[in-house]
Amino acid sequence: MNRRSIGTLPILALLLTTSGCLIDSTMESDGSGTMRVEYRAGPNSTADAVKRLFTSSNAEVTDITVDKDMNAKVALKYKDVTALNKSKFFRSLTVTRSEDEKAGTKTIKGVVTNARALDLPDDSLKYFGKDAKISITLPGEIVQSNATTSSDKTATWNTTLNKLMGADKESFEVTFKSSGSAASGTPATTPASAAGTTPAKTAAAAPAATLKGKKSK
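Now predict its structure.
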């Protein structure tokens, strides 16, 4: 595979590749949570190098393996879902939380922002995989989302790497019932802080992956 192609791939894109990559998170009511990520790391990657991509003041890696084929499995816990982009691996991602006290619901929205939209070359897709699967389990029943599928408390998005990297922005949004809110028959909770940090520019051509100049639809 062309090494240059790998080097220009933005980090979030690598994260979201799925024929070898999966993102599965469980979030608590205070915005903290755990996550499992499986993806194919770049050639010659080490467990320490992969660990550094996920570690930040907000996130701690609790388990990690990288096999001889560069398939990485990472388990981590985070303090605040809105601060995930403090980790290099999530630097193209901005997450916000908001609450509708009247409706008794909370909303989580994640936006992947590409510094420039690209089409990944075939050799990169062959190495990293072309598909992506992202899922999140929430502390309350889901009432609305733009996920591919949602059931009870879990929302799942099935997409492709080129779709993520070929758009200026890609959004993931889910609204769920607040625990201890009017919707569940108990006093409403204090509004969750609507946080969000400006996503850092993706590396020279996007998340540990890359792209072409297409506009999102």
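The two ends are 31 Å apart (CA to CA).
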